[in-house]
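Ticket opened by: R.M.
Priority: normal
Category: complex prediction / small molecule

The reporter submitted a protein together with iron/sulfur cluster and asked that the result be attached to this ticket for the collaborator who will pick it up next week. Submitted input follows.
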Amino acid sequence: MASERQINVGGVLIGGGAPVAVQTMTKTETADLQATMDQIRQVAEAGADIVRVAVPREKDVEALRAIVLESPIPVIADIHFNHTLALKALDAGAHCVRINPGNIGGSEKAAQVVARAKELGTPLRIGVNSGSLPAHLRELEFENPVEALVTAAVEFVELMERLDFTDFKVSMKSTSVPNTIASNRMLAERIPYPLHLGITEAGTKWSGSLKSAVGLGTLLADGIGDTIRISLSTFHAEEEVKVAWEILKALKLRERGPVLIACPTCGRLQFDMDTVVAEIERRLEAYDDPIEVSVLGCAVNGIGEARHADFGITGAKDMGMIYSRGEPLKKVPTEQLVDELFAEIDKYYAAGKHVVRDETDAAEARAWLAENEDETAMTPERMAALEAEAADGREAAPLRLDEEASPVAGRRFTRA
Ligand code: SF4
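Result attached by the on-call engineer:
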């Protein structure tokens, strides 16, 4: 259930069924114009739709004025405690201002900010944090933190409505993944305004990405959330953007750039797939098209479930093969697999997104695949396919182990 209402942050629509917008926050001192602009360009390049900058001092407002003019993407000013700065950020041309009505100095000061936002036609983000709930909700927070968070958000929404202001989105931040999920589910039922999702202080690139993927992914899969920010403890804000995109791509909510699929590897692997996958991932960053590239660690499955991939490789000890959409393209020495893969991808684009196939090379590759494929091997992929078949309720006769076959790799499983 996407939000009913929609707001427009500097040309980026949020809510009301618009694509989920990716945002991040700069990590630089905002007043350091050069460093801040460098980072904004980097995050825009990585795919941020919107960027937020902290505005804690007068000198940051001065920089904000220039940033708004120079930034390739809309800019949100992040203000805490100081309604004068919020007013100045609005006057400086921020495309949106984030305030926490609970710490801005009372409802009268919040009303002044709202009045200026209305005058300028600038939307606001109303943010509530689990760590800074109003005093009258502290007891409730102790008993029921989710209800306390939602109550605070609803109270702020009601304040905005009393001020006859509806041009805002709402965020509720908690460090707890379950509380983030539960509170946003509850709030989405209660208000029609767009929701900004994030897990606050999520952690390092590794743990923070996982927490965010679980928390935000659960909500997004339910259709809740109109813009997301991944908070990671890294100076590299573009990493937050990349994680946000991976979440949206995984849920098929948005497309951006290539999709890399790779097998998890197992004891059949015969080449250094870790290095190969990392290299492919790095080189794919240069492509904008949502092309799908697959890497299989061995050829015993054939092309298997990578059949739909636009391009892929599968390797063995000395030789590997490049394939496209389920058909072998060419066989190449393992150490040339990555370069040859990208040569094929580039040929495809040069031919106007048409796979260029040399029949002699393809025949050689098919022969290589036939030699290396092992239809009897019970690989993770084949086990998964059989399980899926059984789960689908299709007639899945029990597997019978053919004792005639070789005792280990060659065990032959057949349908009874
Ligand atoms: S059997 Fe599957 S998981 Fe194992 S290396 Fe081959 S493709 Fe990868």
